[in-house]
Input
Amino acid sequence: MAGSSLGNRAILRDIELHADSKMTTAFLADPGMIAFWKALRPDLEQPATDLEAAAAARAAASVFDHFRKAAAAFAPAEAAA
Output
């Protein structure tokens, strides 16, 4: 799962070391992605109110719940047991 500039570089490095070179990886090294995270960082570093932090935590939990459900749909039947 890509998400940050550092995470993207780590994923790209892992793919380069261990995976089939036919995998699509261009987006992981895209300068636009790096510029996006650099521009977003100052906003992320601003203090959040308790209300904002609680809303962000609920949103993050919802996103990861969605990821878990999507992954479960592709998991082998014995892994779900």
User: Anything to note?
Assistant: The two ends are 24 Å apart (CA to CA). Residues 50-74 form the longest helix (25 residues).
